[in-house]
Amino acid sequence: MKSYICIPVIWICTMIIMPTHLLAYKYGLGSCIDQRLEQTIWSAIMKENLDGFIFLGDNVYGDQPNGNLDKMSKAYKIQKKRLPKWLINKKDILTIWDDHDFGLNDGGKDYPFKKEAEQMFLNFWNISDSDPRSNREGIYFKETKKIDETKVEIIGLDTRYFRSKLKGKKNAYKPNKDSEATILGKDQWSWLELTIANSTAEVIIILSSIQILATDHPYEKWANFPLEQAKLLSLISKASLTKTIIAVSGDRHRSGIYQNKDFVEITASSLNKPGSKKRENDPFLIGQTFPEINFGILNIEPIKNRITVSIHDKNGLELNSKIINIHR
């Protein structure tokens, strides 16, 4: 009898001592979630058994035309009570911001309360004082994970804090071809270039609140700054020779999957504010866009040599997906 009793005891001890080895990792993706509206989509997201969730901006709606942050403060207080505890307390949360949690609709570097807004953002997402974001301007960051011996680097960009003025009228923006115009600003660009150049990761995931590849719509996008977009695409193209690159974006109140010769981009938007039903096309779009309430999935499975990006409606039904083979 004693020999049989020892087996489970040894097994339990081994499991306690043995280091955790991640074989796969599944992120939920989403943006544009208004604290004033119902958030029923979380029940479908919970069923996905996620390891983490990436918030892609407009994580609250606290902006005002005058830029005052009173509404932002109230928005965060409401959202703190509405985000599910199973998510916030138990999952790996990564987050960037967009204009509605930056403080000014379509706002950029000229927004006078951006430092105060950044501090609110850091406080709400419990970003520690030792984190680089707490000691510099802008909420850009990087994080590295090892998943089944595959190194994955996640790079979150700040497309608000340093961005130059848009040209044209709201919802009818025109390309800003000024050589001094920027989205990321000098310091963030230097950081991004060094981060990618020095990366030893096999997979790089780039988070951008605004879309990188989309060209045809008249709203905010990287293509509003053609020189900046070309610079980013060139950087990605060089990195894609030896790495698998995936971009993740939000903002649009419609989701979609886009692809050029170097990488795939998934746009996941919106979690509770659907967009217009107007059909949208783009030369880089795979299939169609989905203006209904939705969320995205980024499923990293090195053991199968693949990463799957997918779009799901409020009931969890898959609307579109794309499998990306990991570059070896």
Our count of helices gives 8
Strand segment count: 15
Low-confidence stretches: 1-19
Strand content: 25-35%
Helix-strand makeup class: alpha/beta
Our measurement of the CA-to-CA distance between the termini, rounded to an integer number of angstroms, reads 51 Å
Question: Could you explain how this protein is built, in words?
Answer:
- With 328 residues, this protein is an alpha/beta fold.
- 25% of the residues lie in helices and 26% in strands.
- The protein is built from 8 helices and 15 strands.
- It has helices at residues 2-17, 41-46, 70-82, 85-88, 99-102, 114-124, 185-197, 226-239; strands spanning 25-30, 52-55, 92-95, 141-147, 150-156, 167-169, 172-174, 203-208, 244-249, 255-259, 264-267, 285-290, 294-301, 306-313, 318-325.
- The strands form 3 sheets. It has a 7-stranded mixed beta sheet, covered by helices on one side. A 6-stranded mixed beta sheet has the order 3-2-1-13-14-15, with no helix packed on it. It has a two-stranded antiparallel ribbon with strand order 6-7.
- A hairpin with a 2-residue loop joins β6 and β7.
- The longest helix has 16 residues, at 2-17.
- The model is unreliable at 1-19 (pLDDT under 50).
